[in-house]
Specification:
single chain, 356 residues, mainly alpha, two-stranded antiparallel sheet, 14 helices, 2% strand, globular
Length: 356
């Protein structure tokens, strides 16, 4: 691990070039080169791997280890080392860091602030808590399934005064659906290697397992809800619409490799939203960031207005490899093309749903 002063300097250089969201550094997740893909580089206590998931580089290392362990089973995703859907997770963590969303929102500590420990992930951060479920739980499951070697036992470090699950058994007791679905993802990777299915069908099936696990982690992160009270109503509205958007991405079996994930994450707001912000007309955010805020809000509000039917209609429409491919194309148009009419989106998915 690098010294804090060096990390602070590197992070400042990464953030200073742009006011927009920063999700990558040299084509890889932020500070990826300073994370490790060697288990032996992480702390061990009494023969048990003991990472500190509240240190940015430790948490990034969990992702680096997962990608290294699962890549040999994900050849159907495409050639090259950046096609795994897992890449979306460390890229997301990088955005959370550079946008200030991993810092202590209560102001009680300098955790995560430029004036404090820049590598600190605050247990009081709603975003850091939600991400815990999308990093620690898949890592604990991967260790249990033997992806990091035989007999690897893991217990995460527990922040003082907090009550996060820290072991496989603890998380399985408290969040069984999340653990079970990550177990099924890892088991599916091994099964796919022996499957006679065509590669396109294997790819779609693995993406289905991956997103089911991802969403199970997201649902488990409802345990973090009380932490939203430390944020502005504008940030909370964005956070909830961001969660809602995952329903569409998951149902379409989005392949969140580096290229695609960067495209969808770069327009995310590059700072925490404040009470006086009025999206989609926030002067110091880019046109793309404001557009993303508008679309996320529209998707959430429309789904609420329809009593949840926008999400369920979309999920029903994503009933085949072909419709999921069309769905991914539509999401790209909706989120990245300001000229794409929201009414067109509703009309298309309604007609798609009737064909299933």
């Amino acid at each position: 691990m690098l010294r804090p002063a060096v990390l602070c300097l590197l992070l400042a250089c990464t953030v200073s070039f742009s006011n927009a969201a920063v999700v990558e550094d040299g084509g890889l997740p932020v500070m990826w080169a300073h994370a490790t893909d060697q288990l032996g580089d992480l702390p061990v206590e009494n023969g048990i791997l003991n990472p500190d998931a509240w240190h940015y580089l430790h948490r990034m290392s969990l992702y680096r280890l997962i990608i290294a362990a699962t890549d040999p089973f994900l050849g159907v995703m495409g050639p090259g080392p950046t096609e795994s859907p897992v890449w979306g997770l460390p890229l997301q963590l990088g955005w959370l860091l550079t946008s200030g969303r991993l810092a202590d929102p209560t102001g009680a500590t300098t955790c995560g602030l430029q004036t404090g420990d820049t590598m600190c992930i605050s247990p009081k951060s709603w975003w850091g808590c939600v991400n815990y479920f999308g990093s620690v739980i898949p890592f604990l499951s991967g260790a249990q399934q033997g992806f990091f070697g035989a007999g690897v036992s893991v217990q995460m470090q527990q922040p003082a005064g907090e009550d996060y699950c820290t072991t496989y058994d603890d998380c399985k007791t408290r969040f069984p659906d999340a653990i079970d679905n990550w177990d099924k993802f890892y088991q599916g990777l091994r099964a796919a290697a022996e499957s006679p299915l065509p590669d396109n069908e294997k790819k779609d099936a693995l993406l289905g397992l991956y997103w089911k696990a991802q969403m199970a982690s997201t649902y488990a992160s409802a345990a973090c809800n009380s932490l939203q009270s430390s944020y502005s109503t504008v940030e909370v509205t964005f956070a909830n619409s961001w969660l809602n958007s995952a329903e569409y991405v998951a149902a379409a079996h989005f392949q969140s490799n580096i290229e695609r994930a960067v495209k969808f994450m770069t327009p995310l707001p590059g700072r925490v939203l404040q009470e006086n912000d009025s999206p989609p007309n926030i002067a110091d955010l880019s046109t793309e960031e404001n557009h993303t805020l508008r679309i996320f809000s529209w998707m959430k509000n429309m789904n609420t207005l329809l009593g949840g039917r926008l999400v369920t209609t979309w999920q029903s429409a994503m009933c085949s490899v072909t419709t999921r491919e069309k769905g991914r194309e539509m999401l790209e148009q909706l989120l990245l093309d300001p000229g794409f009419a929201t009414s067109t989106f509703v009309g298309i998915i309604t007609s798609m749903g009737t064909s299933c």
